[in-house]
TrEMBL record:
Keywords: G-protein coupled receptor, Membrane, Receptor, Sensory transduction, Taste, Transducer, Transmembrane, Transmembrane helix. It is found in: Membrane. InterPro entries: TAS2R. GO terms for cellular component: membrane. It comes from Equus asinus (Donkey). This is Taste receptor type 2. Belongs to the G-protein coupled receptor T2R family. The chain crosses the membrane at residues 16-40, 100-126, 138-164, 191-213, 241-259, 271-292. It is a multi-pass membrane protein. The keyword Membrane applies. One of its GO terms (molecular function) is bitter taste receptor activity. Gene3D superfamilies: Rhodopsin 7-helix transmembrane proteins. Pfam families: TAS2R.
Length: 327
């Protein structure tokens, strides 16, 4: 009987495939964001300062590193029925997810203000003001995320204790009504907490794309050659922003669907959903690495040094073997 029960609890082959993909995807994303944090953090320590855009990118990479780690731990702990640990990790995940949304929004707003060519006085004021306000924006995002996480977790704990107390006294009808009321009360809060930074991100990205499109049309009118380096740079920037917008919008929509519980997924499709959800963040981080000259240069140096290091170690081993065999 125990063997049959354990066999029934074993995941199917399709579930195992999605689990392995999710594991590899999470590890790759953590390595990628860890690389960003190490490169920019080393420069921060060496120069005692960091440009405002790189400061936001480094904080965003650190939050995404933690986000992928929390998603990895919570998913595999829920697989092995560690319910109490999953609830605590869920609280940390909610805090880090809120922080990630705000940092992504500020990064999009920063790029929009710095790169766009709008002549409105508000944009000139923002260009002067935003760089000086980045540390305050990062601190404000941290405070908002802490408040959001604490309020959500404390509300859920109080709700669960109240429902458990009512059920223990046999009042199941009132417990169900309280659960329904809390669902309609807390759900708009969770959606609003994610929607505000996402709308800021969406508006900033669309404004930047509109500005780049207008500037690209002006450049093509004066320089009809499609192989002009400046024209190619603007075209690549538009393509990166398009991928950037699609990937992060898919992540936001997948979280909204998960929070609202629009669909009920089976085990194998749960892992497939996790793969698709976190693929958007992973690809977005890849775009950040490839679009930054500093990170791209560090990545090339790292990839170039790895074969040299292996060749150097191999040559030392060959020399040692030659010395041992020589009379």
């Amino acid at each position: 009987m125990n063997l049959e029960t354990s066999w029934e609890k074993m995941p199917s082959s399709l579930t195992l495939i999605f689990m392995v993909i999710f594991l590899l995807e999470s590890l790759a994303a953590m390595s990628q964001n860890g690389f960003i944090v190490v490169v920019l953090g080393r420069e921060w320590v060496r120069c005692r300062t960091l440009p405002s855009g790189d400061m936001i990118v480094s904080c965003l990479a650190a939050s995404r590193f933690c986000l992928h780690g929390m998603a990895l731990l919570s998913n595999f702990m829920s697989l092995f029925n560690f319910c109490s640990q999953v609830s605590y990790l869920g609280a940390l995940w909610e805090f880090i997810n809120s922080l990630t949304f705000w940092l992504t929004a500020w990064l999009a707003a920063f790029y929009c203000v710095k790169i766009s060519s709008f002549s409105h006085p508000i944009f000139f004021w923002l260009k002067w003001r935003l760089s000086r306000s980045v540390p305050r924006l990062l601190l404000g995002s941290l405070i908002i995320s802490v408040v959001t996480g604490i309020s959500s977790v404390s509300g859920n704990i109080i709700l669960m204790q109240m429902i458990a107390s009512l059920r223990s006294h046999g009042n199941h009808t009132l417990a169900d009504r309280i659960r329904t009321f809390s669902w309609h009360f807390f759900l708009p809060q969770d959606v609003l907490a994610m929607s505000i930074p996402f709308l800021l991100f969406l508006v900033s990205t669309l404004l930047l794309m509109f500005s780049l499109c207008r500037h690209l049309q002006q450049m093509r009118a004066h320089r009809p050659g499609p192989h002009d380096p400046s024209t190619q740079a603007h075209t690549m920037a538009l393509k990166s922003l398009t991928f950037f917008l699609v990937f992060y919008t898919s992540y936001f929509l997948s979280l909204i669907i998960t929070v609202m519980k629009i669909t009920t997924l089976q085990d194998q499709w749960h892992w497939a959903w996790e793969v698709v959800t976190y693929a958007g963040i992973y690809l977005h981080s890849s775009i950040l690495v490839l679009s930054s000259p500093k990170l791209r240069k560090a990545l090339k140096m790292r990839l170039w040094k790895a074969p040299e290091k292996r060749w150097f170690i191999a040559s030392i081993n060959i020399n040692n073997q030659y010395q041992q065999t020589s009379p």
